[in-house]
Write a structure and sequence with these properties.
Elements lengths: L3 H4 L7 H33 L1 H15 L22 H15 L8 H27 L1
Length: about 140
């Protein structure tokens, strides 16, 4: 695989030369991502998703390109496979908060108590995470 040293011959670059080279690399990255997507779409339309995925995997192995390291999940793998993630919960809460924030002051006691019951488990978990952060 090519390295930056293979592409840039001089040992030292001026800031302007580096900026030009880096700009070209970013353009190449954006174009390559777009072209890869178009190539995958082409292959998938003609020969199917399974063929495309298998062929791409084989090509990456032949080129010595390792698969990216999986990002650690906040939800453990041994739990049921639900689409619920802490990120999803947070986004849902933010949407709910935006929608309801003006109405909450007008709620009666029953609605306020119900909201509090539903929010308390999140509050307790946030407190526990803060405590764990203090130990790190």
């Amino acid at each position: 695989m090519l390295t930056l040293a293979d592409l840039i011959l001089p040992e030292t670059l001026t800031q302007k030369e580096w900026e030009h080279a880096h700009t070209q690399l970013i353009i190449c990255k954006k174009a390559a991502n777009k072209w890869l997507g178009q190539s995958r779409d082409y292959s998938t339309e003609r020969w199917g998703l399974e063929y495309t995925a298998d062929k791409e995997y084989q090509l990456e192995l032949e080129l010595g390109i390792s698969l990216p390291e999986p990002k650690p999940a906040l939800n453990p793998a041994d739990k049921t496979k639900a689409i619920v993630t802490i990120e999803g919960l947070s986004q849902s809460f933010i949407l709910w908060q935006r929608k309801m924030s003006d109405e909450i002051p007008q709620w009666d006691k029953d609605r306020l108590n119900r909201a509090l019951e539903l929010l308390e488990p999140m509050e307790k978990e946030a407190k526990r995470v803060r405590e764990l952060l203090g130990k790190v």
